[in-house]
Design goal:
Blueprint lengths: L1 E6 L12 E4 L3 E3 L4 H4 L2 H5 L3 E3 L5 H4 L2 H7 L7 E5 L1 H11 L19 E5 L5 E4 L2 E8 L5 E7 L4 E4 L19 E7 L7 H6 L5 H7 L8 E5 L6 H10 L5 E3 L5 E3 L1
Parallel strand pairs: 3-4, 4-5, 5-6, 10-11, 11-12, 12-13
Antiparallel strand pairs: 1-2, 1-14, 2-3, 7-8, 8-9, 9-10
């Protein structure tokens, strides 16, 4: 399993793109950096996007990558909770903030098609089996367990946590890594909880029962807090834990 990190920041600044992860075979998890981090040619090769939730930092580049696709590129399939898809239709590609890409150039053959997915559902996509796991956040959100038949990786949505790994499906290939957010430093725990996020200390509690041979890649650090949080992540003392960086390529 190979994961290319196009963006893993909780915000945006030069060198920091919002959430977007690319699997082999044209499958992306979230769309925060699809247009910013991929060449035009690479953008044509995306076939499926799995959205964790509708927040702006996870969908930012979706309208732009849609318009960057050539007429020959296949319809882009968008997977996500029904509520997420509805938010994109109503607030992003609604004929006001952007054109109605779900209905144009024709309803039969649009730029982008919606494939709503419910928590607990498992979907075959290319070489992967992708399962949706509900996680608590300030809006409906799902994490994804991605299984390539040899190993599995869990890509988590933004979440305040609360036993999310106990909700994982049990019938997947051996779990090699989890991508999990920590947005604010430990001293901002109350604010993190209020906004549906984790701190490094909370992430430590969340991952306490995960086997120690599972890598923990920490994502979604808010810009400006990275140095302080890198120390707090290291202080957890867990083997195989590290902050994620844009441009990272992981292979398991
Ligand atoms: Zn976010
Ligand atoms: Zn969010």
């Amino acid at each position: 399993m190979k994961v290319r990190v196009l963006g893993c920041s909780g915000g945006a600044a030069p060198g920091r793109n919002p959430s977007c992860y690319l699997l082999e075979g044209g499958v992306a998890i979230d769309a925060g950096a699809l247009a910013s981090a991929l060449t035009l040619e690479e953008q044509q090769l995306i076939t499926d996007i799995f959205l964790t939730h509708a927040h702006w930092d996870h969908v930012r580049d979706l309208p732009l990558t849609v318009i960057n696709r050539t007429i020959k590129a296949p319809t882009l399939r968008l997977h996500g909770l029904p509520e997420t898809v509805q938010s994109i239709r109503a607030h992003l590609m609604n004929g006001e903030t952007w054109f109605k890409a779900f209905d144009l150039p024709s309803v039969e053959s649009p730029f982008i098609s919606a494939s709503p997915m419910t928590a607990g559902e498992t979907r075959e996509c290319g070489r992967y089996r992708i399962s949706a796991v509900s996680v608590p956040h300030t809006v409906p959100a799902i994490s994804y367990v991605i299984d390539d038949g040899t190993c599995s990786v869990m890509m988590n949505a933004d979440t305040v946590g609360g036993g999310i790994f106990e909700r994982m499906p049990k019938d997947h290939s051996p779990l090699k890594a989890v991508f999990l957010e920590a947005s604010f430093p430990n001293r901002m725990r109350d604010f993190a909880v209020m906004t549906g996020h984790l701190t490094p200390q909370m992430l430590g509690e969340e991952t306490r029962h995960l086997a120690t041979d599972v890598d923990v890649i920490v994502t979604h650090l808010k810009p400006g807090f990275e140095t302080e949080m890198a120390r707090e992540i290291a202080d957890l003392g867990r083997p195989g834990i590290r902050p994620c960086r844009d441009g990272d390529v992981f292979e398991w």
